[in-house]
Amino acid sequence: MFIEMMVNGRRVSGDVPPRTTLADFLRGSLHLTGTHLGCEHGVCGACTVIMDDVAVRGCLTLAVQADGCDVTTVEGLAGDADLSPLQAAFRKNHALQCGFCTPGILTTMHALLSSEPDADEARIREVLTGNICRCTGYIPIIKAVLEARDAYRPTQKVTVDAAE
Amino acid sequence: MKLPDIEYIRPSTLDEAVRLLAAPDAKVLAGGQSLLPLMAYRLAAPRILVDIGRLSELRGMRSDAHGLVLGALVRWRDIENDPCIAAAHPLLREAVSHVAHYQIRNRGTVGGSLAHADPAAELPAVALACGAGIVAIGPTGRRMIEAADFLEAPLTTALKSDEIIVELRLPPWPPTRRFVFEEFVRRRGDFALAGVCLFYDLDGEGRMVSPCVVAFGATEIQQRISMLEEYLAGRRLDEVVCAEAGEMASAAIDAVEDMHAPQDYRRALFGTLVERALIRSMTSGGGHVH
Asked: Distance between CA A57 and CA A108 in Å, rounded?
């Protein structure tokens, strides 16, 4: 089936068998291999991508279901910068070791903070239960996410609006 | 595992979807959060997926004097984010907070959870406890199925293969009703090893009226524990009653056994949850306290 979608701000299209998951389409057809596949049945969270502003499991979404949608993967988080503020906080706080789960955790936390910039530690912990990390013990991840919250608060935008 | 080969059709109307479902081995796809894992494990092998995910007529939520109506495509996140639901049906709101993980709550739907009928699923427990109706549409029109008749066996419902769930209708929730929704999981969002959904009203003397207790997770299917309901009816709750009810709950269920927990463990766990839930219901008023 022919599908078309926005991925990281770029219009992409492809002809895929309907059984192709969104994660496989991103990795196999678009070569965006930052999206990792762990369990392939919705338990580990490594394949999380952002679809129409919400975090979804890339292995439990068919590519054909994402037809016409706006998708952001870990490759799209930083835009033109080297690292997004969230990614920089992960680096600073050693919030990753092997890095396999990291793309899924970054996309999940980016979606969370984009809609809930004031998420407290309890909320962050609750949402993190959907992502398995076998290295860090989660503590540095939580620290990094808490630290990155400032970048998601609309302070700057409000200042600009007020100046106009 | 990769999914098996499949045909995919995305109808633009509900009628078209019903027509497409008449094909042999066709199955409805909504959020896909239960069906796709089943397909990955080859536990389900439909030939055609009929994707109803974009039928906006199935997305509505409304609350009025007749109760709360949830369209089949209402997602968990929609319920979580709607302050009206928390007021109209606090038990539902509390139950939904236990459903799966963040990413799955962004895609999983009301209709999908009911049609899938996992024994550990929260929504079927709420539907059964509240005496909800499930409206389905098929080639001969619409019909309403009582939740008690709808849930037949693990992963098995009264829904025919050519029917689509349209909406769930929950009766009005009395604001003074006391309730607790409690489950035990190894990791938040995982399938519950055991769970209980209970509510009751109080008469002027503080005695329980029309108590309702539903077990899930520990049993083959969501089920009301009528023996326990009879015991609780007309009693005033105190610690002794709560403890006795817990013991009775343990004895009342036919607990399942699998790789996650043996039968005795689930039985004991269910009793503990019931006792805990009743104790909590004494202090938490109409709502709940974590």
From this structure: 10
